[in-house]
Amino acid sequence: MLLDEALKAGISALEYWDMTPWEVNATIHATNWRLDYEHKERAWLAWHTAALIKTRQMPPLKDLTAKPKSRLLSEKEAKEHKNFHKKAVDALPERFKKKLSDKGD
């Protein structure tokens, strides 16, 4: 039953009855994706912890926490991102647009 799966995904019963089946399904899929991602993160951490235990010398912390360098978008890329966002917001049901405008976004 869809309600059972929605509750497992963290959707309250009140939220469930206010959503379309498509929205419920999308939320369930997003929750499953997030849980899978979190599981992979924990597996990555466990593997690296075990690997570091076996090393003779610890690598510098900055090597382990290095983040990819960010870059500024070109004007063309920025326009593409802006257009994509606008199309995504325009495709939302009116009740979600209202929630976004109430937040000042």
Q: Report, as a whole number of angstroms, the end-to-end distance.
A: 35 Å
Mind describing the biggest β-sheet?
none
Percent strand: under 5%
Rg for CA atoms: 21 Å
Order of helices and strands: HHHHHH
Properties at a glance:
single chain, 105 residues, mainly alpha, 6 helices, flat
Structure description:
With 105 residues, this protein is mainly alpha-helical. The protein has 2 domains: 1-57; 73-105. The protein has 6 helices and no strands. It has helices spanning 2-8, 13-17, 21-53, 61-64, 75-90, 94-103. Helix 1 packs parallel to helix 3 (21-53). The longest helix is centred in the middle third of the chain and has 33 residues, at 21-53.
In short:
This protein is mainly alpha-helical. The chain has 2 domains: about 1-55; about 75-105. The chain is built from 6 helices and no strands.
Indicate the topology.
Blueprint: H1 2-8, H2 13-17, H3 21-53, H4 61-64, H5 75-90, H6 94-103
Helix pairs in contact: 1-3
